[in-house]
Write a structure and sequence with these properties.
mainly beta, elongated, four-stranded antiparallel beta sheet
């Protein structure tokens, strides 16, 4: 299973971007979908996550500016990023915890990362 990310790029401060992440094959079930980010010299950190029942968690630094959503029919998770700041610059990674058909256990999948750069 691969995660296909899209939507990163260069934007000016105050602008918006929308990230998308879809699984390469349909999964039997998905428990959690989320986005993490890693800036140069920093550890990877959670940006936002959404559970199967729609519960969400956000990093304090993005609350009120970012919105995570999911489309289970498409096995896709989105991250709408508004009012972007230069400190949001990082590589953003998609994360999915889910189970394939005929599998009895869930697997933690990661995308390859997409660069988001916010200029001041």
């Amino acid at each position: 299973v691969q995660l296909v990310e899209s939507g990163g790029g260069l934007v000016q401060a105050g602008g918006s971007l929308r990230l998308s992440c879809a699984t390469s094959i349909r999964l039997f079930s998905i428990d959690v979908m989320g986005w993490y980010r890693q800036a140069p010299g920093d550890q990877r950190e959670l940006v936002a996550r959404i559970t199967r029942n729609g519960a969400t968690n956000y990093a304090d630094s993005v609350k009120g500016r970012f919105t995570i959503s999911r489309d289970d029919a498409k096995n896709t998770v989105y991250l709408q990023m508004n009012s972007l700041k230069p400190e949001d610059t990082a590589v953003y990674y998609c994360n999915v915890v889910g189970r394939e058909f005929y599998s009895s256990t869930s697997t933690n999948y990661w995308g390859q990362g997409t660069q988001v750069t916010v200029s001041s």
